Amino acid sequence: MPAMQAGVDYEKKEDAPYQPDLPTVKTEKAYKNLVFLNTPAARNIRIQCEFQEPGCRLLEEEVHNIVMFFGSARAKSREEFERALETAEPGSPERDKLLRTEFMVKFYEGIRTLTEKFSDWNHQRVHDGKGRYVVGTGGGPGMMQAANEGAYRAEAPSVGFGISLPFETGLNPYVSPPLAFEFHYFFTRKFWMAYKICGLVCAPGGFGTLDELFEILTLKQTGRIKRPIPIILFGKSYWEGILNFQAMCDHGMISQDDVNSLFLTDDADEALKFLCQSLEDVEADFESQGSPFLAPMRDSQGGYVHDAMGRMRRQSGEQARSPELSPQTDTNSPGGGGSQPEFQMVQGQQGSGGQGAEKKKPSGNKPTESVI
Fold first, then answer.
1. 253 CB-contact burial (10 Å; exposed 0-12 / middle 13-18 / buried 19+)
2. What's the CATH code of the domain at 245?
3. What is the spatial distance between Cα 182 and Cα 148, in angstroms, rounded to a whole number?
4. How many CB atoms lie within 10 A of CB 267?
């Protein structure tokens, strides 16, 4: 800066604000920052999303009662098996492994038949003004696909609780798109497999199938699943060969009631009869107790907790639907004791005509829901 010259009168000017010739800084909200949301620091947010979003969507689709079907992802239909056998190199380990799984072909087709007939049974219930049960699977190939395919053939919705795996590219094509879920975390997936379960059919499978089966058996034995649920082991010789529940009882690890509660069969019609009769027996028991019904919870302003999701779906052209409720406590969830705040139980509101029921004529595929 040049030195000021003596005798020169400098006019004092007001300082003008500094205005750099730069664009404004654009910002991004934290919850829209995908880089952050995929970091370890945001793991708790991702977990919370996998707990909350499925509940919102199941509520929107009026899915309250699910019969789960577990089983191997390696199972194939007869047509798929024959095609795979044609392309397998003779004497190769892959061909030998394929041949060892041929026994599952009949169970694949049995599961497909079972869910088709089970879905037809549900259609009749809807016609009679009763609640429906929805087929649910892990969303993958094999036995899971067979179960979803059976429901698809009967023109019934079915759920797929998928998991992100490097060797699976997506859910099987028979899962209903609005009920197709993909989980990153196994424990959130298993939570939703158990949360609305009303029955279980378990076909032959490996570690994953056993993990899912024993999750439900544990929740049932410890009373975390409050309602009675029928459990069918489909493939009698397989299950008797790999699991000896009677030996566990003889050694004092489980009770004889635990053993007797498992129904083993190779026949789809036998499984269907046991499943449907068991569900109706549970409904009858609940009717005598006031028929609790799993329903959405209202907030303090009288609106539904999940209205935000409903608004999003309405804006997307989907119609939001919510049953009515009264303030009770959900005791049917695996957590029990009202530990899950998303849902509550309604007394005297059911679709099977029990005391206090509000009779409504269902339309199309939107029946009054089950009493359990």
1. exposed
2. 3.40.50.450
3. 16
4. 14
